[in-house]
Design a protein that fits this description.
By secondary structure, the chain is of the alpha/beta class. It has a single domain (5-247), classed as Aldolase class I (TIM Barrel). The chain has helices at 16-31, 44-54, 80-86, 96-101, 106-118, 131-135, 139-151, 180-198, 200-205, 219-223, 240-247, and strands at 5-9, 37-41, 59-63, 90-93, 122-127, 163-166, 207-211, 230-233. The chain has an eight-stranded parallel barrel with strand order 1-2-3-4-5-6-7-8, surrounded by six helices. The site of 2-phosphoglycolic acid has 13 residues, from β8.
Amino acid sequence: MIRPLIAGNWKMHKTIPEAVKLATRIRESAAACPDRDVAIAPSFTALRPTAEVLRGSNVRLCAQNVHPAPQGAFTGEVSAPMLADAGCQYVIVGHSERRTLFGETDELVRAKIQASLQSSLMPIFCVGESLAEREDGRTFDVLERQLKGGLNNFQAADIRHLVVAYEPVWAIGTGKTATPDQAQEVHVFIRRMMSRTFGTDLGDSLTILYGGSVNPKNIDILMACEDINGVLVGGASLEAESFGRIVGFQKL
Ligand code: PGA
């Protein structure tokens, strides 16, 4: 049994007072669900105040991005040791918005995963195909390239705390969700590929999240898929009520 992980990605939303208010409510909903892990990813400015709110709770703090270097002349960037220092336990790496809007390559994603692991942060490594790639029948090729590129030269022991998030780009922020069958098919592909590359122990215990327009209406059916171990939620994580319902998903 893989413990479910429900993660909220707040993207570039919430001032510090707003973040504190929302985190306080999420802390309450998560307390009622001790059989699952919950994480929230505020923007950098709200990390520390949110960490204070989450202290002693079962909600973990997640960053949305990280620079590969531990320190240096990289104006505007934040390093993995700084995130750990702020109280983060997870970090999102390779989100499609970073790949498409900020030109992140598989190689850079790999460097970010390595830096995160070195600071004992658990990377939530995002992969996913665009609509054109899906329509061209290239979904699995794209995922294979992203997984191989992002995890090149790692050993199974290095990545035992890594989480993979399958986020089809065409489902992010569009209101279009992959059907449970579409998601399950890709999750099986990812698990098999990870088992082939890193061994079945890793593959069998790997947490694979689904992301892309997850909401209170579709959460239960998505979580009923055997290989969906949790979700990465954008829009619906910005309101306490909708995220609370997602955290409290019903087992079908
Ligand atoms: P969404 O975003 O839930 O708003 O589609 C998901 C994500 O980007 O992680």
